[in-house]
Automatic annotation (TrEMBL), chain A:
The keyword Glycosyltransferase does not apply. Pfam families: CarbopepD_reg_2. GO terms for molecular function: carboxypeptidase activity. Keywords: Carboxypeptidase, Hydrolase, Protease, Signal. InterPro entries: CarboxyPept-like_regulatory. Residues 1-32 form the signal peptide. This is Carboxypeptidase-like protein.
TrEMBL record, chain B:
It comes from Pedobacter cryoconitis. Keywords: Signal. Residues 243-254 have a biased composition (Polar residues). This is GLPGLI family protein. Residues 255-266 have a biased composition (Basic and acidic residues).
Length: 888, 266
């Protein structure tokens, strides 16, 4: 229609003053019907401004019924039609805040009504009411653990595994959104510090009413507004029925091959002002109970990694663990006891004590062939067949006093540990012998943190002191009836780190100044006695040296926290003062180093879907005293090592970036990350072989090693199948140099790993899960004609069935494919099945069969620099285990 | 449990800083009582919420007073330096949250903006303003001292009866209802699963802003939002799973019951 054409294309100003009435006229001629139309314009009386949203109603004169209504548009116009038989009707214009106007109109075809409204304070009848009372929470509205729990679960860790966003790793570390949690609370109290597996693995989920995730949790209250953390904490809330009394669980089991046993007893009391958790465990079923006492590296809340004074053992007899679940290869006899308490004291203080003791006997049998690349495709090959018995006794105790309030924090933690370990290895290989290694590790330490906030400023004082003592010994008895020879190796380290810092915040920025002294005094005393003539070294069999290292530093940090961006820049300057005293040669060496170790962190949130992070750092680090030895040290019977009197200087650069996309609408998650870290070193390892004996030396030569990795993960939820599919891909490359048999070799290892996974809940009585792990390792050694390429596949399939409320079955199979060498591969299938029967609420009967096909050994190959080791490890045979579990 | 998860997650995921954009001034504030049936299989078990309709000069905002009150109390405590742990520990103090949506009618012009929180994310979608086609009937009654007239419509899978008054000349009402020649005082569906009824009314003399929190919403279509909402309410586990970047391994057998789901709109 023409009118419409004009309506949409007419210039608005002309339209409003002139054309509009005309068009309406045309329009009314066009629709000459019984319908009446009223058009018009409503404006404000004083200003003449158009009124939007005025309500126009048409009523009969008695105002009984509403005939038609409309509202004015943003320009103040309205147009209204009605079908009405009467002679005339009323038009009413009303708008909140204005006087209502009425107009009597004749019932004719079309008419134009323009009105202005006068402002008026509305005389609305108010009805005032009070807002409703607070609706209190009651017990039924608490975060219900039982919603996530199923009949197959027992401990709270079993349930945690299923909580979305929460992941429990094989070693017990709990992750939330892929990051390790920083605190584990029970009813708001930190009973176990970093050893939270004790609680997670032993508290029955039936005693827990809710698990609370505290995102971005800064445990030190006084730091909360100034320090950014992306870590979360967990808090377990117990059921009221579980509070204030002793709770316990007892599990007993026996099985075949005889005698297989397990016994676990737990007693716990969680009350308002004190908590206690005590445990006794023993088994010989392959369960490594020492993992329960593992410290899950919680960030040292104030000093980060700065207080890492731990030493590595001088004698290293253990082989690297095969890439298979530990419980398949562990032949153990273990006992564990632990007592943990926390008590609230007056004035917001808390006192915590943790004591534990472990006795472990581990047996293993391992056949291996180690090959070192020499030149022209020649390898040195060493065969070993080791029967190992390890005996461990570990006692540890700690006490911590702390106070944590809004503007004050005090923590003093004292810890002592006495570890004894004795390894006896009988080797029938290239060089048959018996080794006995004693590797005790004792330490005492005290960590004091004090923090106070004054307005926007924070003042901190920390003092960390540790003394560790490792009196270690190695006795090697060769089978050729020569005299046994002995090495005594003793290190002791006194480490003291004291610092003070002041920080001040303003408008999202925080500036932090820190100054401190780190002092280390390390003594290294070693001696090799009765070394047989067959060994390639004759002298330099003793070390008596002391290293004094002082690090004076200032560390300014600037941080900025805002909604979209978090950044932090640290610019530390370290002055190292090193003094090495060689008491044998009476030679002292002094050196000063000045280092600049900046670090930059950036986290950016583009929008709720996209986030990015970037990190760049430079670090310089002067090694450890166990590389300063100028006399030989045995690591094992076939590995001798000599250090260098010049300390190691490593200059490591690291750049990493990540991008993540999370679309909950599409259930799609993508993460991409990359890291590149080149390191410059002043020392190069040199290895030479004399028969089966490998002699390592450290020579001064600048060299570079590098590491880079690209990784990505994609996951997609498939709602219709209640399933999640994910795939991770990573590519890692490490490159370095070493001298082997007087020849400089460049070695490079590339690893491609693809990990698909799929899990689905097929129906309410059946679920299904699959994970795969496909990897390809390539080793390139310069001057070697070809690369060594080894593939490895591990796939796991699991099915759970619920037969009825009292009985359920779990079955799984593991498939391994390992390429042991270029033209040799082995594959292996494990199958396990477990039955659980629950006749009552607090009792359970279990039957578990592991390794149904009774596989006896597992073969695998690992790379090590310019060489590799092929191993065959003994695995646990088919086990059948029956057990009962009570809780009270 | 649905609600609990929701409460828990929203408790811990409160935003620290409020950055609000003022989009209008309130002229009247209406308070409605919302009575609803969470589970259609148990129509006698109802829940209540206390809702606020702020009518401005151009637009209106509709939200739950209970949710608003809890959020503001938490924000005050956060500003005063309370940790999330302490807040969680004494969450009884804050009381229950209500509906998690905020509905802005005629914002932007001619549209409705709906903001709703599911777990820790805030979602936003828009739809056209004039949603309902009302049929005005002659029946009348008095509600809260106002003469009200009956009107009916079909909307979002339900049939509604509304009572409006021309004595309050604003063309709006609770939830997404609008388009009648006066304020809607009461509106309910035929099954009485959702009943909004006016409880109080006051004029606003001082400047009281209508504001929209300026934060990063996840924008999506209405259909996608309904899909998410349904997933969350029927199966919060699956929802949380797809809301985090970590995979959930259903290592045990989840004997999950289907949660009741009775949304106001399909």
């Amino acid at each position: 229609m023409n009118t419409k054409f004009f309506f949409f294309h007419g210039c608005q100003v002309v339209f409003s003053h002139f054309l509009f009435p005309l068009l309406i006229l045309c329009c009314s001629f066009a629709n000459a019907a019984a319908q009446a139309t009223v058009n018009g314009y409503i404006k404000e009386e004083n200003t003449g401004a158009a009124i939007e949203g005025a309500i126009i109603t048409l009523l009969p004169k008695d105002e009984k019924n509403l005939l038609a209504y409309t509202t004015t548009n943003e320009k103040g116009y309205f147009s209204i039609q009605l079908n009405f038989d009467g002679r005339d009707f009323l038009l009413k214009v009303s708008m909140l805040g204005y006087q209502t106007r009425s107009l009597e109109l004749e019932n004719k075809n079309t008419q134009q009504v323009n009105l202005s409204l006068r402002e008026e304070i509305s005389n609305l009848k108010e009805v005032l009411i009070k807002p409703p009372r607070i609706i209190q929470y009651n017990d039924t509205i608490s975060y219900n653990v039982s919603s996530f729990a199923s009949d197959q679960d027992r401990s709270i860790a079993d349930v945690l595994k299923k909580m979305p966003g929460i992941d429990v790793q094989a070693d017990g570390t709990i992750l939330y959104n892929g990051k390790a949690i920083n605190k584990f609370y029970i009813e708001g109290l930190d009973l176990l510090d970093s050893k939270y597996s004790l609680a997670a693995n032993n508290i029955s989920f039936k005693d827990v009413s809710s698990v609370e995730v505290l995102e971005g949790h800064q445990p030190i209250k006084a730091l909360r507004s100034t320090t950014f953390t992306d870590k979360a904490a967990l808090n377990l809330k117990l059921k009221n029925s579980a509070k204030g009394k002793w709770l316990g669980t007892l599990e007993l089991g026996a099985g075949l091959p005889f005698p297989l046993w397990k016994a676990n007893l737990m007693a716990m009391k969680i009350a308002g002002a004190s908590q206690s958790l005590n445990l006794f465990k023993s088994n010989n079923t392959g369960q490594n109970i020492s993992t329960e006492l593992k410290s899950h590296t919680l960030e040292d809340l104030i000093n980060g990694q700065d207080n890492n004074a731990e030493q590595s053992n001088l004698i290293q007899l253990s082989e690297s663990a095969p890439p298979v679940n530990e419980d398949r290869i562990l032949f153990n006899r273990s006992y564990l006891g632990t007592i943990n308490t926390v008590r609230k004291l007056k004035h917001d203080y808390q006192l915590r004590t943790n004591i534990s003791y472990i006795n472990d006997q581990l047996k293993s049998n391992n056949q291996s062939e180690t090959a070192y690349y020499l030149t022209d495709n020649n390898f040195v090959r060493i065969q070993e067949n080791n029967n190992t018995i390890i005996q461990r006794n570990r006692a540890e105790g700690s006490a911590e006093l702390n106070k944590n309030t809004e503007n004050f924090y005090l923590k003093d933690k004292f810890r002592a540990q006495l570890f004894w370990e004795r390894s006896a290895i009988s080797n029938t290989g290239t060089s048959p012998n018996n080794q006995i290694g004693k590797t005790p590790y004792h330490l005492i330490e005290n960590d004091l943190n004090w923090l106070k906030t004054l307005g926007k400023s924070t003042l901190k004082f920390n003092s960390f002191n540790q003394y560790n003592y490792l009196p270690q010994e190695l006795v090697v008895s060769p089978d050729d009836e020569t005299m046994p020879f002995t090495q005594f190796a003793r290190t002791s380290t006194l480490f003291s780190h004291t610092n003070i810092s002041y920080s001040r915040g303003f408008r999202g920025w925080v500036i932090d100044y820190q100054a401190g002294i780190k002092a280390t005094i390390q003594n290294l005393n070693t001696e090799i006695q009765h070394l047989p003539m067959s060994y390639p070294v004759k002298d330099s069999l003793r070390n008596e040296l002391q290293w004094q290292l002082s690090d004076y530093y200032i560390k300014p940090t600037i941080r900025y926290n805002a909604k979209k961006i978090n950044l932090s820049l640290t610019l530390p300057i370290n002055l190292y003062n090193s003094k090495i005293n060689n008491r044998l040669t009476e030679h002292a060496e002094k050196e000063n180093y000045l280092y600049f170790n900046p670090e930059f962190l950036l986290f950016y949130k583009f929008n709720p879907l996209w986030t990015a992070n970037f990190k760049a750092s430079l670090s310089n680090d002067p090694g450890n005293a166990d590389r300063l030895n100028q006399g030989f040290i045995f690591r094992s019977y076939r590995y001798l090592e000599l250090g260098n009197r010049t300390p190691l200087i490593q200059r490591r650069q690291s750049y990493s970036a990540g991008l993540s996309y999370r679309n909950p609408v599409k259930s799609l998650f993508v993460n991409l990350s990359g890291i590149y870290a080149p390191t410059l070193l002043n020392q190069l390892s040199q290895r030479s072989f004399s028969g089966f004996i490998s002699v390592g030396e450290i020579i001064l030569q600048n060299n570079q090693k590098s590491f880079w990795r690209l990784s990505g993960r994609l996951s997609k939820g498939i709602d219709d199948w209640k399933a999640t599919a994910a795939i991770s891909v990573s590519y890692t490359s490490t490159e370095g140099e070493l001298i082997q048999q007087n020849k400089l070799l460049n070695n490079k290892t590339n690893t491609l790993q693809i990990t698909p996974s799929f899990n689905a809940e097929v129906s309410s009585w059946c679920n299904f899960s699959y994970t795969g792990d496909f990897s390809r390792n390539s080793l390139f050694v310069s001057s070697a004609p070809t690369a060594l390429i080894l593939d490895r596949i591990n796939q796991r399939l699991g099915i759970g069935l619920i037969i009825n409320k009292k009985l359920n079955v779990k079955a799984g199979t593991d498939y391994f494919y390992n390429q042991v060498s270029v033209n040799k591969s082995v594959s292996l299938i494990f199958a396990d099945i477990g039955l659980r029967y629950m006749p009552g609420k607090n009792i359970e009967i279990n039957l578990d069969c592991t390794n149904l096909f009774n596989k006896k050994n597992y073969a695998y190959t690992l790379y090590d620099g310019a060489g590799y080791t092929s191993n065959i490890a003994m695995i646990r045979p088919a086990n059948v285990m029956a057990g009962v579990y009570f809780r009270w | 449990m649905i609600k609990t998860c929701l409460i828990l997650i929203s408790f811990i995921a409160f935003s620290l800083c409020l950055n609000a954009q003022i989009i209008d001034k309130t002229s009247i504030e209406c308070q409605y009582k919302l009575t609803w049936v969470p589970d259609t299989l148990r129509p006698n078990q109802t829940k209540e919420d206390f809702m606020i309709l702020k009518v401005g000069h151009k637009l209106s905002e509709f939200y739950s007073y209970n949710t608003f009150r809890v959020d503001s109390m938490i924000q005050v405590d956060v500003k005063n330096g309370m940790s999330s742990l302490q807040i969680l520990a004494q969450r009884a103090k804050y009381g229950k949250k209500g509906m998690e949506y905020q509905i802005y009618k005629n914002y932007p012009e001619g549209k409705i903006t709906v903001i709703e929180k599911l777990m820790s994310d805030s979602y936003k979608y828009e739809e056209i303003l004039k949603l309902q086609k009302w049929a005005i009937e002659n029946e009348k009654k008095t509600i809260l001292g106002y003469n009200a007239q009956k009107a009916t419509c079909s909307f979002g899978g339900r049939k509604y009866t509304a009572w409006f008054t021309t004595e309050i000349p604003v063309s709006t009402g609770p939830w997404k209802f609008s388009g009648l020649p006066g304020l809607i005082l009461k509106v309910e569906d035929n099954n009485k699963n959702y009943v909004f009824e006016i409880a109080g009314l006051r004029k606003i003399k001082k400047d009281e802003p209508i504001s929209l929190e300026q934060k990063e919403y996840i924008e999506l279509t209405k259909t996608d939002f309904f899909k998410l909402d349904k997933k969350m309410k029927k199966d919060p586990l699956a929802f949380m799973n797809s809301n985090t970047s970590v995979t959930l391994k259903p290592s045990g057998n989840n004997q999950k019951k289907e949660r009741p789901y009775n949304p106001i709109e399909h």
